[in-house]
Amino acid sequence: MNSRVFHRHCHSTLPVAVRGEGAYLFDQNGKAYLDASGGAAVSCLGHNHAGVRAALHHQIDSLAYAHSAFFTTESAELLADKLAEHAPGDLNHTYFLSGGSEAVEAALKLARQYFLEIGQPQRTRFISRRQSYHGNTLGALAVGGNIWRRAPFDPLLIPAEHIAPCYSYRDKRAHETPFEYGQRVANELEERLLVVGPDTVIAFIAEPVVGATAGALTAEEGYFSRIREICNQYGVLLILDEVMCGMGRTGTLFAHEQEGIHADIVTIAKGLGAGYQPIGAMLASDRVYDAVSNGSGFFQHGHTYMGHATATAGALAVLNAIQNENLLPNVVHKGNLLMDRLHQRFAENVHVGDIRGRGLFIGLELVKDKETKQPFDPVTQLHARIKNRAMELGLICYPMSGTIDGTHGHHILLAPPFIISTEQVDELVDKLGNSIESVI
Ligand code: PLP
């Protein structure tokens, strides 16, 4: 087909997706694909969920859209109530947007405005981590750590400081316990604050479980508590980006619930709309919200589609489904099963260096050799080749080339729907194994 759609990869020929059902997508030829990554960790309920469809029909039949400067809507109010009820800490104020990057942009700007409201205008910098992805708009790209994604646009980006991630597989020293390692890398935040001047920094932003640049990288126990402590000590805000790892993906509604800390601002997207609607959100704590509410009374930011009635109705139905169908225990159970099966399948494979993650958010790191952990050269385009082979075999997984200290590493991210069955876990592992082994 001679496509007039400006596809991201201009020369790729893509199948036409025509139908989705449960864990499967179908193309124009009727070929089935097991959607083991929800696209990019989006489709947490699977496809064609009857309850979400009904809620969307109901909303559109009465009201599709009303601009948020003129009206609020019942669905936006109910969704904000529900998120506040279930979020850790006092994240009682939700700002609805249309996706993850928009949510991150709003978070960065709200954090900056917070300091203007409380009389600290000298705070202008953000600190984040080298293995991180926070979105593709200019602000989000600036704080993200993926050098390859940032490089062409570097001259346009606000300056941001990047410290080490918590990446045991690559960086933990042999004599360190996991806890000691976590403390060492968390302390890099304090070291960097002292170098740049702690009272010039607005916020530290991090993904509780890193997704798109490192393949489901979890932090060591105690890492995020130490990060929180340092932020408190220097008056820096903590922004947690749960765009990919949030909304139940790791087994709890918010991934940072498992870190035992509270954030000042949290971003969510992907699983929030589960692909039924494009929607993201930024949740602000009482302290941050009150500074604006009691100060200028106006957040100097906004988009046309924020608080979209149909999008919020869809997201509300998704959240109801996660709760009413009691899906989070299945995330933990099937996540453990998938992890076990992957370890069995790849035990002898010298190219699968690490298998990690939490819940149904699992990453495989591919290396030339397990012993040396040497990454594959980026020119091998391994991720693209595995993706293509997997699609031939009827599997959607999310291979990516992240960065390991400036060079590319290759990972495969798995984020299947929360409804995945045991048979589908086996199908996933089988097809993934065949895809990897036929390429390397
Ligand atoms: N933040 C994180 C952690 C992400 O993984 C992503 C997307 O992958 C984004 C932000 C950007 O979200 P979007 O692609 O919806 O703009």
Automatic annotation (TrEMBL):
Cofactor: pyridoxal 5'-phosphate
Keyword entries, A-Z: Aminotransferase, Pyridoxal phosphate, Transferase
Keyword Transferase listed: yes
One term under GO cellular component: cytosol
Transferase in keyword set: yes
Entry superkingdom: Bacteria
GO molecular function, one term: transaminase activity
Record-linked InterPro entries: Aminotrans_3, Aminotrans_3_PPA_site, PyrdxlP-dep_Trfase, PyrdxlP-dep_Trfase_major, PyrdxlP-dep_Trfase_small
Family of the protein in this entry: Belongs to the class-III pyridoxal-phosphate-dependent aminotransferase family.
PANTHER family the UniProt entry points to: AMINOTRANSFERASE, AMINOTRANSFERASE CLASS-III
Entry protein name: Aspartate aminotransferase family protein
Source organism (scientific name): Neptunomonas concharum
